[in-house]
Write a structure and sequence with these properties.
The complex is a heterodimer of chains A (about 260) and B (about 250). With about 260 residues, chain A is mainly alpha-helical. Helix content of chain A is about 80%, strand content about 0%. Chain B has ten helices and no strands. In chain B, α4 packs across α6. Chain B is globular and about 75 Å long. Classes of the chains: A mainly alpha (about 260), B mainly alpha (about 250).
């Protein structure tokens, strides 16, 4: 038993010092050294590349300030509500298109080609429709995430094993039971995948809208630091934001048992 | 119903018919005051505004500017992305160490870096091009690695048996075999690039089509704003269709 424990510990140590981990550590150290060198060199404008110590202090002061969490809560609320509205609409449209070949051939092309258009250009329209406050940011998040979720759901619906559908029909399930007992459980992977992509684009939609016209939210904080040229704080906000965004993406992927890379 | 009618004519007719019916319904609802005409312009006014947007807003030059910015960023993502992808393919340890980082970068909201790029490059085309570059790079790297790794072993062995040099092996064997997959990455990258170029133009109010929408919205020229948005959508869709056709053409078997 003790010998097994020692072997496991040795294996764990060997796992920790794999060349790939060493290389990762070396790359991170090299990047930080280059950054610090640039900051000290004076080749770039002062504060454009602040010293690492200054960024660390700015990050710490950002994370211990209650104001940051107030703005973060505003952005999170916009994204969650937007994702719920856009996601639900996308799910329903995806289910309808996936279940009906004629409707899919008639309308899916529009979704497919409208999906990759730059959504931020709709922001002036969203302001006119929903005002300059929360509404327009939620609408931007909902509009952004609708397309990937609808397309992913429709594609997932068509990939369901026909046997499962026949089993559901042989049990004489109605449309609601077919959806909740057969379609949705069988489409977990494509729906989670669509949700992941949807979360990413909803985040971008809401944050960009905040940078353009808002008085609260993380996007507003970023553009405020630009306006007052507080570069260490800008780096601090961007670091916090990237960690949160990548973490949320990985969490959804883990929830669905998928790889955390974008497909 | 004949298969031709059912498969080829009915679906597009239904799609187009629904679109026309929806626009007609909006037109009627606005004329009867159900929808506020100060928020949603008459579709007929939007259609009529296309001429004004073309003649008075210098849309051809704006389109040219956006196209050139996207082209510059597109060239950069192609060259840098393929070279970095090749490097990761050639050095498997580096690939294992960094591939997840590249994938994480692909899912990160990099467009939020635009205020930082404004500070570094200033409010000019360089910022827009660099934003397009940063957004479009990760898919090109990932798909290049995927394409090169997917080259059939027998093709590589044929190259070796003919004693090809490393450069010849790349140019004559690896690149042609991986090209369809690499182009998938370039196409994805170009889409992200175009989205970011137009988006940043809109956000910093500088450049081509994005700035046009921003300008028109600030002047509250309602039908012209909607017409400009429709124009940008048309450009995006055309771009998407063209790159999709090229991708299909490059796919093996075509």
């Amino acid at each position: 038993m003790a010998a097994t424990g020692q072997l496991n510990a040795a294996a764990a140590r060997a796992h920790l010092v794999q060349p790939v981990h060493l290389l990762r550590a070396a790359i991170i150290v090299a990047v930080l050294l280059v950054w610090e060198g640039l900051a000290l060199s004076g080749w770039l404008y002062r504060d454009v590349v602040p010293r690492l110590e200054v960024i660390a202090v700015a990050l710490w002061s950002l994370l211990v300030t209650p104001e940051f969490y107030v703005h973060l809560w505003v952005t999170v609320r916009e994204i969650v509500i937007g994702l719920a509205i856009g996601g639900l609409c996308g799910l329903v449209v995806g289910l309808v298109l996936g279940a009906n070949r004629l409707l899919a051939r008639a309308f899916e092309g529009y979704l497919y080609y409208l999906g990759p258009t730059p959504k931020i250009i709709f922001f002036p329209v969203m302001i006119m429709w929903f005002g300059v406050g929360f509404g327009s940011k939620i609408a931007m998040a909902a509009l952004s995430c609708f397309f990937p979720i609808a397309l992913s759901t429709a594609a997932g619906m068509r990939q369901i094993d026909k046997v499962l559908i026949r089993v559901g029909r042989s049990f004489r399930l109605d449309a609601w039971q077919m959806t909740t007992k057969i379609y949705l459980p069988a489409m977990r992977a494509p729906i989670i995948n669509g949700l992941r992509i949807g979360l990413g684009v909803a985040l971008i939609g809401a944050l960009l809208a905040e940078t353009r016209l808002s008085s609260q939210g993380i996007g507003f904080l970023v553009i405020q630091t630009y306006n007052v040229f507080d570069m260490p704080r800008m780096y601090a906000i961007l670091i916090a934001l990237f960690v949160l965004a990548i973490g949320a993406n990985a969490a959804i992927a883990k929830l669905g048992g998928l790889s955390s890379t974008r497909s | 119903m004949t298969p031709l009618l059912r498969d080829r004519i009915l679906p597009p007719a239904l799609g187009l018919g629904t679109l026309v019916a929806a626009l007609a319904a909006v037109e009627i609802l606005i004329r009867y005051g159900v929808i506020n005409g100060f928020i949603v312009p008459l579709p007929s006014d939007v259609a009529a505004s296309f001429g004004k947007v073309f003649t008075q807003e210098d849309i051809v030059n704006r389109f040219r500017l956006t196209f050139l910015e996207a082209l510059a960023a597109g060239n950069m993502i192609t060259v840098v992305g393929v070279l970095l992808g090749l490097l990761l393919y050639r050095v498997p340890l580096l690939r294992r160490a960094t591939e997840t980082w590249v994938a994480a970068l692909a899912s990160a909201p990099t467009v939020l870096l635009y205020p930082l790029f404004l500070v570094i490059f200033g409010r000019n085309a360089s910022t827009i091009i660099m934003m397009g570059f940063v957004a479009g790079l990760p898919p090109v790297i990932l798909k290049t690695v995927e394409g090169l790794s997917g080259t059939r072993r027998v093709l590589i062995d044929v190259g070796r048996s003919l004693k090809l040099s490393a450069t010849q092996q790349f140019v004559k064997i690896l690149l042609p075999a991986a090209l369809p997959t690499i182009f998938v990455g370039i196409r994805l990258g170009l889409i992200f690039t175009l989205i970011n170029v137009v988006g940043v133009e809109f956000l910093i109010n500088f450049g081509g089509l994005g700035q046009l929408i921003s300008d028109l919205a600030e002047r509250y020229e309602l039908s012209e704003t909607y017409a400009a948005i429709c124009f940008v959508i048309l450009v995006s869709v055309m771009f998407f269709i063209i790159t999709e056709r090229i991708e299909r053409w490059l796919r093996p078997g075509n």
